[in-house]
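Give me a protein, keeping tokens residue-aligned:
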Amino acid sequence: MPIDLYLLHTKLEDLKKKYQNLSYLETDPICFPKQYQDPLDIEVVSFISCLYAYGNVKSIQGFLKPIFLNLGKSPYQTLLAQDLKFQSFLSGLNVYRFQTKKDNQIFFQTLARVIAEKERTSPLLESYFLDSKEVFEETKSIQRFQSFWEEELKKTSGKKTLSYGLQFLIGKSTSKSPKKRLSLFLRWMVRSIYPDFGIYQRIKPNQIPFPLDVHIQKLIQILGITNRKSFGVKDAYLIKEFFKQINPTDPLLYDFYLTRVGIIEKCNADYQRQVCDVCYLKEVCYLKEVCLVFGSATGN
């Protein structure tokens, strides 16, 4: 059954109006960089927030809140100084899921060294995505960025291979995974429209992959955009191409709003009357046929 792009666009616009409110940022890790004004702080905090944005919202916030509290008013300046305050910060780091305390110390030591080498140049990290001609390449740029960090983390650790925790944190450059956390970081940095920051100018919004987190993966299935059950980086670009039909210059426009359907409305890609009956997307959801069957069979 073909997708009615006009109807989908209309419903996505309704969803955007609903969630285009600062109060909803607390349900997303973007709430952390939103606390800062300096682009250097925003970029550093965004990078940290996106890398550790796996697990549930409560776990992510529980780990990141003390991080940014202890980094002080300017996380960038604290990392840049690498002074006693920074050493105290390192000693106070905790375990986070797959990352040991040592993993986290190595990561922050590496981040501090990398930004110190940039000599206060904003943006700090955009160039590591680009090739020698300063071009963002669909098939290579995120992998290039990961390779850079793999080597820098090895340099800090003094080992030829990364621990599981560090490798998971930055992701494998050779992996065909969706690379969703770095795709999310790119969205924040590249898009200049709410809720993102637009710090990167050499990468365009219609170039970056769609961040395929678990909520988006479920939603693109029930919206009929794909019937795939597993996703790789190629799929992240294919989903971006689909949304370019709706908005050619800014295909990631609806990412934040769609994820609210999963995070706030608790959509789990199956029929739940209390969720589905009030959903803004119910008219374009392929579960609507299932909803009718469920409603008839149960007398609801």
Remarks:
- DSSP finds 14 helices and no strands in the chain.
- Residues 290-300 have pLDDT under 50 and may be disordered.
